[in-house]
Design a protein that fits this description.
With about 500 residues, this protein is an alpha/beta fold. The chain has 18 helices and 20 strands. Helix 4 crosses helix 6 and helix 11 crosses helix 18.
């Protein structure tokens, strides 16, 4: 509990989405659940999100919405004042501020397909809105918590904005990287219209927004925020490597003293088949009777007859990052007569076409559904096997980060110390199959770790990663096929 007499810690979360009002991915789940967890620790946590199409109606339906705005705020962008009405809502015990600006927040998809000077404006407005909001409401937090590139300019504005830099020192900032693949890279010509000083884009300052001649908003957040986090400890290690850093590994390593990996939690009030009102029937570990009803409902929706084949469900975006290409190849041997496959999600055109062709190849065993509503996502509760996607790229650098100190002439500290139990349990892939447990005969004592890292650096990791995943996936699925039809399995897609 963080409360000292009359002092209460206050945190404002700024994000483009927040479940259940607006959700496109895991970011929405985090923003919808993390503030609730903080409130249980006596922290006054609130959320600021845009009122995308349908958000106000949903807030009124599932929560309490004050239809009368508490006021208006204005933000100057491109030498024009954009004005938004601010509404208050309470959803699942969470205090949410909604920015109603139909001109900027009119895209129901939230994220633009192409980032340019026009499509980025909604997120710049969202990033500057907290400073105007705080003057309107009189509620002043100690921390501003920004989520992903869409709100990355929050901390950058406190350092380089011509006006908002006067607030520097009034607030501490925290930035969370949910997906490093999207960094908010755009032409530097936009900075002057946003109100940033020339110092924000400088080749002489390695901490500026400059990134190979472009503006990188995520880089600016990393260099200016007081602390930044990732969605798991593993991801915090991965992004410090050339493969996982996607061009920002040098910046992240330079500021790693501010980095913390905090694993995403699960809201058991929402994701609980024992109490979930969106399921056809409830069940628990002690009483699995209701899962049979969930299964029948899913079979009816898919147009399938009951033949006792296990049902595998994949939930996620159809992108290479989520491993859908690996998943399709892995399940193919089982679809003829042994299993059924439900794909819940949408994505880019390439993998949408691949899934479409996959469905045509197995019309009686494969079904695809979108990921638009909570009811759709709860189809996972009717499955016998759930495929969770965690695409990782392990390199010699990532292993060195995990196992520091790596070599000081001590055989124990040099040893490759990943435990088999941890790898098999969390990642499902035994790395020990790649490398010898001990140094080869003739090696000097204490050089076993160096040798293994050298071998890993020149190993064909992508090819072997696919092989190992396929082997582990097929082994687990065979076990489900041979056992009880309602064995619950979780497969982590891991690329080595």
């Amino acid at each position: 509990m963080i409360a000292y007499k009359n002092f209460t810690l206050k945190v404002l979360h700024i994000a483009p989405e927040c479940s259940p009002l607006a959700k496109k991915g895991g970011l929405g789940d985090v923003v919808g659940t993390l503030p609730k967890a903080l409130k249980k620790q006596s922290i006054d946590a609130r959320v600021l999100i845009p009122a995308w199409p349908g958000v106000l109606e949903k807030a009124e339906e599932i929560g309490r919405l004050k239809r009368e705005p508490i006021g208006e705020i204005s933000v100057a962008l491109n030498w024009r004042a954009y004005t938004a009405s601010v509404l208050e809502a309470e959803v699942n015990g969470l205090h949410i501020y909604l920015l109603d600006q139909p001109e900027l927040f009119s895209d129901p998809c939230i994220y633009p397909e192409k980032l340019d000077a026009v499509t980025v404006l909604p997120f710049i407005f969202l990033s500057f809105a907290p400073f105007e909001l705080l003057r309107l409401t009189g509620w002043k937090p100690q921390f501003l918590h920004a989520h992903d590139w869409t709100t990355a300019p929050v901390s950058a504005a406190l350092k380089w904005h011509r006006y908002y830099s006067y607030f520097n020192g009034d607030y501490d900032t925290v930035f969370t990287i949910h997906n490093l693949a999207f960094q908010g890279i755009i032409s530097p010509s936009v900075l002057e219209g946003w109100g940033f000083s020339p110092r924000a884009f400088s080749n002489l300052d390695t901490d500026s927004l400059e990134y190979f001649g472009q503006v990188n908003m995520m880089k600016g957040a990393i260099t200016t925020t007081e602390a930044f986090t990732t969605v798991s400890p593993n991801y915090s290690w991965d992004i410090q490597t050339p493969n996982g850093g996607l061009g920002l590994d040098g910046v992240i390593v330079a500021h790693k003293n501010k980095l913390r990996g905090i694993i995403n939690g699960i809201d058991y009030d929402v994701w609980n088949p024992k109490t979930d009102s969106l399921l056809p029937a409830n069940y628990s570990i002690g009483d699995m009777g209701g899962k049979e009803e969930c299964r029948r409902a899913l079979l009816k929706e898919c147009g399938w007859k009951e033949d006792r084949r296990p049902i595998l469900i994949f939930v996620g975006r159809l992108t290479e990052q989520k491993g859908i290409d690996i998943m399709l190849d892995a399940v193919r041997p089982f679809l003829a007569k042994k299993a059924r496959f439900v794909i819940v999600g949408s994505g880019n055109d390439l993998y949408t076409r691949k899934v479409f062709e996959f469905r045509k190849e197995y019309p009686h065993s494969v079904v695809q559904r979108g990921q638009g509503t909570s009811r759709i996502r709860r189809r996972r509760h009717a499955s016998d096997a759930l495929a969770l996607r965690t695409l990782r790229t392990f390199t010699a650098d990532s292993l060195r980060l995990r196992n520091n100190p790596c070599c000081k002439g001590n055989r124990r500290t040099c040893r490759y110390r990943y435990r088999r139990r941890r790898i098999a349990g969390r990642y499902g892939i035994p790395f020990q199959g790649l490398f010898p447990r001990r140094a080869s005969k003739g090696d000097r004592p204490g050089f076993g770790g160096q040798r293994r890292r050298h071998e890993m650096g020149r190993h064909n990791q992508k090819r072997h990663g696919l092989r190992f995943f396929m082997g582990q996936f097929c082994k687990g699925l065979r076990g489900a096929l041979q056992g009880h039809p309602y064995v619950r399995l979780i497969f982590y897609i891991t690329e080595t």
